[in-house]
Amino acid sequence: MKATSKPQFGNIGRLATPLAVVLGMGGAAALAQQADAPKPAADEKKETRASAVTEEPGEFNNWITFGAGRNWVDGDKAQFQYRRQQPVNPFGGIEDFHLERALGKQGLFTIDGRGIFDNNDYLVKLGVSHPDKGFVRVGYREFRSWSDWSGGYSRGSNAWVTLNNEEMHVDRGEAWAELGLTLPNLPVFTLKYSYEFRDGKKDSTVWGDYNIRYPLAGASILRGIAPSFWDIDERRHIVQGAVKHTMGKTDVGVGLRYEVSDNDNSRNMHRRAGELPPVYAAPGADRYLTQKEGVRTDLLSARASQETRFTDNLWFTSGYSFTTLDTDISGSRIYGPNYDPIYDPTFSRRQARDEGFLDLEGGSRINQHVANLNLMYNPKEYLAIIPSVRIEEQSQTGVTDFTETTVGTGVGLPTVTDDIVNTKKREFIDLSEGLEVRYTGLKKWSLYARGEWLQGQGDLREREREAPSGPVDLLRESDVERFHQKYVLGANWYPHRKVNLAGQYYYKIRQNDYDHDVDTTVFAPPATNDFYPAFIKQQDFDTHDVNFRVTWRALNSVTLVSRYDYQISTIETQGDTDIAGTSLDKIQSAEMVSHILSQSVSWTPLARLFLQGNVTYVWDVTDTPANLASGTARGVVQTMRNDYWNASGLVGFVVNEATDLQTQYSYYRADNYVDNSALSQPFGAGAEEHAITATLIHRFSKSILGKLTYGYFCNNDQTYGGHNEYDAHMVYSSLQYRF
Question: What are phi and psi of 56, to 5 degrees?
Fold first, then answer.
């Protein structure tokens, strides 16, 4: 499986003077996700432009930044685009544009824009505002997310399946119009319309099966390593309005949201790819599967809130919301000779137990009520008491009908179809309480404690039958009770102006009890293979977590921050008693242990030089009883580890009054790969990643700033047999003009 916890490296070149500003921002830059190349348009925050020349406030209110870059990749281009979220080809355009003009004495007109070509990264935003009248804002933004369409790797036979171009992407966008009235001494009104979309293709982690040995070479072994993908087509319209007003010591607000969405997605899978004559006996088993999933929703939500300040030390807030959601579904699951096939019950390459469905239709309705009550009381200046109560009630009803298609195992692989109707009804109510206490009455100490409790109960009714009046295939009726608790204790201590310490411990428990009044699951006694969800009778989750942080300013130029986190979680499960009278014992079904150690050092040896380093190590392991399985299951499931460590370094240097230089390096390593290909699909991450960037920033004048960035990125991959490895070079330059 692909590791998702790798740190990404970047936001290079945000070095600014005076140098104190640079040093204060260095840590954040070291942990940012991308190199100093175009960012997604969704990130609207304006960053302070790098400068070695101090500007007078308000000297320049407008600017335009042009940028262009290129990545050269040797190796897996799709993996590089996924990791770096940048295209391989040249890209560039307007990195940032801002223009503002005064309207009268207090009004303001603004335009913001961005357009990076070949990266599908665009933004245009216009606004007119006046503090005593209101505002109008309209805009459009669009950005691209890259993915790598690759599957799994089986080391035992060096099996790696490439079905097509692995470079995939999804484009996201939003257009909006918003207006507000902010007249003095009157309620504030806001109204906004948004149109959102998502289009493209992305990888799926549900992989297809693949025969990793030809029959001529021995026995056939199937592994789920063939890549599959999602075809995304989603649209959403949102209208929301709100009114806020202050009456004496009370602020009140009401809001309304109406949302309509239309999603037509499909998962596409190629099974047993390449199993065709003449290597395989006719007709072969190569086939395509397309599962279409259409979802159309209609949501209406209303809310109201108030905040009352009885005195300076007694505040009360409350809120209520009601939401109703109607959903219509459609879809199909069809096998055929290509993607998006027409259903053919006599398809020549069908295989036994190829199950699908046709003409899926139905829907559901959800009604939800939520109420919150909160009180903040400060009986003393150094003591705060915050109790809270939350109650939620929800009801769900749903019905679906479809035609089930099943390929049998008999002679000629007959295809059987059944019309199925499924109904579900679920109701629950949760009551949550919370109490937080903060105390600062001890010199150099800050103490806090918090408790959270939840009690809930509900029921679930499921029925499946052959439509419309055939026999009942499934009938389940279950009652559920939940009890959750969380307790937190923490302290901050400041024993010296150069040292502060913080520690926290929390304990969390979640208990779920299921009472299955009716369960018509059919099985062959004395086996205990009741199917979910009417299998678990009780499940308890316990978590202990403790963490410490020490910040020490050893010298005026050196600051060290150390942190340690420890967490242990256990899951205990008890199965139900089946019809044969066999009762399963309560067992510890999993134990998860994590240790996280991190250390960072910031050093400013010279007024012009700043260095920062950070190292983090994570030790993570999950044990289950399946690790100890014997017989044919021996070794199939092993202890799961997710250990990794990373390190990063940052160096900033002010060359002269007009020029800054910044370099940054990061390293990631995971060594958990387990070659279990003889028994099952190998798992665990094994990878090594390096990233280094250098940025030169030069101020040609007070109004013209130039930047040049070079980056080198390297990914060594063990999990996927080296197929996701790459070496890449990046060059990016920008020129900004302020006016």
Answer: -70, 140
CB 297 within 8 A of CB 327: yes
Tell me which DSSP letter residue 184 carries.
Answer: T
Long-range contacts for 270-275 (Cβ within 8 Å, ≥24 apart)? 270/163, 270/208, 270/226, 270/227, 270/228, 271/208, 271/209, 271/210, 271/226, 272/208, 272/209, 272/210, 272/211, 272/222, 272/351, 273/161, 273/163, 273/208, 273/210, 273/226, 274/211, 275/211
Q: What is the pLDDT of residue 38?
A: 37
Rounded mean pLDDT, 353-382 = 96
Q: What is the DSSP string of 602-666?
A: EEEEETTEEEEEEEEEEEEEEE-GGGG--GGGTTTS--EE--EEEEEEEEEEEEETTEEEEEEEE
Count other C-beta atoms under 10 Å from residue 54's C-beta.
Answer: 12
Prediction pTM value: 0.86
Peptide bond into 90 cis (omega under 30): no
- The answer to whether 666 touches 646, Cβ cutoff 8 Å, is yes
DSSP 444: T
- Give the whole-angstrom CA distance, residue 108 versus residue 230: 44
CA distance 84 to 96: 20
Contacts of 390 (CB under 8 A, 6+ apart): 370, 371, 372, 373, 430, 431, 432, 433, 434
**Measured distance CA(140)–CA(136) in Å, rounded:** 14
Q: Could you tell me the two tokens for 16?
A: 């600014």
Q: What DSSP assignment string belongs to 23-87?
A: HHHHHHHHH-SS-SSPPPTT--PPPPPP-SSPPPTTS---EEEEEEEEEEEEE-HHHHHHHH---
Give strand pairing partners of 544: 507, 568
Residues whose CB is less than 8 angstroms from the CB of residue 630 and which lie 6 or more positions away in sequence, other chains included: none
Mean pLDDT computed over every residue of the chain? 88
Q: pLDDT of 168-221, one tens digit each?
A: 999 999 999 999 999 999 999 999 999 999 999 999 989 999 988 654 445 678
| HSE-CB of 547 using CA atoms within 13 angstroms | 13
Non-local (6+) Cβ contacts of 380 within 8 A are: 441
Residue 398: which residues within 8 A CB-CB, separation 6 or more?
A: 327, 362, 363, 364, 365, 423, 424, 425
**pLDDT for 540-598, tens place per residue?**
999 999 999 999 999 989 999 999 999 999 999 998 776 666 677 888 999 999 999 99
Per residue in 426-465, pLDDT (tens digit) is 999 999 999 999 999 999 999 999 999 999 999 999 998 8
- CA-CA distance, 296 to 363, in Å (whole number)? 9
338, 393, 346, 343: which is closest to 368 by C-alpha?
Answer: 393
| Contact between residue 438 and residue 448 where contact means Cβ atoms under 8 Å apart | yes
Q: In 381-498, where do the E strands start and end? A: 383-407, 415-439, 445-466, 472-496
